[in-house]
Design goal:
388 residues, alpha/beta, D-Maltodextrin-Binding Protein, domain 2, 5-stranded mixed sheet, disordered N terminus, binds calcium ion
C-alpha cells in the first residue's frame, strides 16, 4: 500500500482544527450571551428552563373520573405532562378528596391547590355575575360562548372578575346545549312547576324559583341519592352522555329538553396566581394552551357521544323523552328577564359584563339567523320533506 498524497494525509488534521476553532467561537459567544441577557431564545421568550420540576394539585367539583366532566381535567394533566416532558405534573383530585366540590374556588384562591376545574356559576354566592361565564338562560350556545370569551372581550372581564381572588380563569370545556332535566312527573303547564323541588344551579335556579319552583343547589355526586330519597323532585345535570354515567334514569322517568337554562355550559380551569407566576414562560404557555385544547376537546367529545347515550337511555332503559311546552318556556323566559335585571342593577361590574354579553349576543344571534340556524332549518326542510 503506497503513501496517500500529501493533501489527503493532512485533510483530517485541517478538519480537526476547523472544528476546534468553531467550538471555541461558539463557546465564547454563548458565554457572552449568558452574561449579558440570560438565555434568550429567538422568539424573545426568556427560557429559564433549568430542568426544575413543578408538581401541581388540581381539585375539581366533579366525581373522580366522571366521563366528560371528570375526564377533562385528567386529559389536561396528561397533555401538560407530555408537552412539558414531565417538568410539570398535575395530580387531579375529585370532589371531596382534598376539598368538597363547592370549596374548589377558595382552595385555589388560598393556594391549598394550584388549580381547579369546575364551573363559574357555582361561585354565584360570592360573585353574582359569575353566571355569565358559565351559562345564561336563553343565552349564548357553546360556539357563541367560546367566541365571546376569546374574541368578544369576555375572557378579559372574567380575568378582571377573578383577579381579587388571586385566581386566573381559563375556558375549561363546554357540554354543548344541555337537557332541561329529569322529572318524576310530567310538565304540561306552568302550574306543574309550582312547588317542584329541582336541583338547578346558577341564574337558572333563581329563574326557576321566580317561575314558582324551589331551586336546590347540590353537587353532582349527591344528585342520585337526593332524587331517590325524594329530597328533590327533579334535577338538571348535563346531557345524555353524562347523565347516563350518573345513572339518573334509575331514579327519574321523564327526560325533558331543550336545556333553556344552560344552552352551552362553559366550564373553567382556575389557576392560583402565585402557582402560575412561579412557572417559567414555556410552562405557563403549556398550561394556557393545554386548557384551550381541552376546552375544544370536551365539546367534541360531548357532541360525538350524546346521541349514542340517548339511544341507550331511551331504547334500553325506557326513558320517556319529552319537550317542554312553549308556554312553560315562555314563562321561564319572562322570569329570566326579571332575574337578569335584578342582577344587573345590583352591581356595576355585573352591568359591565351584561353589557358586553348582550352586545355580543344580539350580534351573533342576528348573524346565526342567516347562518347556523338557517342551515339547520334548511337541512331539516330537505331531509324531513315528504317529497324526498
Ligand atoms: Ca347543568
Amino acid at each position: 500500500m503506497g503513501k496517500a498524497p500529501l493533501e489527503k494525509r493532512y485533510t483530517p488534521l485541517i478538519i480537526l482544527l476547523l472544528v476546534a476553532a468553531l467550538v471555541t467561537v461558539l463557546g465564547l459567544w454563548a458565554t457572552d450571551r449568558a452574561g449579558s441577557s440570560g438565555s434568550e431564545s429567538v422568539s424573545g421568550v426568556v427560557n429559564k428552563n433549568s430542568g426544575e420540576q413543578f408538581h401541581w394539585k388540581l381539585v375539581t367539583t366533579w366525581p373522580k373520573n366522571l366521563p366528560g366532566l371528570g375526564t377533562a381535567p385528567e386529559n389536561f394533566a396528561r397533555i401538560v405532562e407530555e408537552m412539558s416532558g414531565g417538568r410539570l405534573t398535575v395530580r387531579v383530585y375529585g370532589a371531596g378528596e382534598i376539598v368538597p366540590a363547592f370549596e374548589v374556588f377558595d382552595a385555589v384562591s388560598q393556594g391549598v391547590a394550584d388549580a381547579g376545574h369546575g364551573a363559574a356559576y357555582y361561585w354565584k354566592g360570592k360573585i353574582p355575575w359569575s353566571v355569565f361565564f358559565t351559562a345564561i338562560p336563553f343565552g349564548l350556545n357553546a360556539q357563541e360562548t367560546n367566541a365571546w370569551l376569546h374574541y368578544g372581550g369576555g375572557l378579559e372581564l372574567w380575568q378582571e372578575t377573578y383577579a381579587p381572588a388571586n385566581i386566573i380563569p381559563l375556558a375549561g370545556g363546554s357540554t354543548g346545549v344541555q337537557m332541561a332535566g329529569w322529572f318524576n312527573r310530567e310538565i304540561n303547564s306552568v302550574d306543574d312547576l309550582k312547588g317542584l323541588k329541582m336541583r338547578i344551579p346558577g341564574l337558572a335556579g333563581e329563574v326557576f324559583a321566580a317561575a314558582g319552583g324551589t331551586a336546590v343547589r347540590i353537587p353532582g355526586s349527591e344528585i342520585y341519592t337526593s332524587l331517590q330519597t325524594g329530597v328533590i323532585d327533579a334535577t338538571e345535570w348535563v346531557g345524555p352522555y353524562n347523565d347516563l354515567a350518573l345513572g339518573l334514569y334509575q331514579v327519574a322517568k321523564y327526560y325533558y329538553y331543550p336545556g333553556w337554562h344552560e344552552p352551552g355550559a362553559m366550564l373553567e380551569f382556575i389557576v392560583n396566581q402565585q402557582s402560575f407566576d412561579a412557572l417559567p414562560p414555556d410552562l405557563q404557555a403549556i398550561v394556557t394552551y393545554a386548557a384551550r385544547a381541552i376546552n375544544q376537546d370536551m365539546l367534541d367529545e360531548f357532541t360525538a357521544r350524546n346521541n349514542a347515550a340517548l339511544r341507550i337511555l331511551v331504547d334500553e332503559h325506557g326513558v320517556q323523552l319529552r319537550r317542554l311546552p312553549d308556554d312553560v318556556l315562555l314563562e321561564l323566559w319572562r322570569a329570566s328577564e326579571v332575574v337578569m335585571q335584578e342582577l344587573v342593577e345590583k352591581d356595576p361590574m355585573a352591568a359591565r359584563v351584561y353589557a358586553s354579553y348582550k352586545e355580543f349576543f344580539d350580534g351573533v344571534r342576528a348573524y346565526h339567523h342567516i347562518s347556523e340556524q338557517a342551515y339547520i332549518n334548511a337541512r331539516d326542510i330537505v331531509l324531513d320533506s315528504d317529497a324526498r
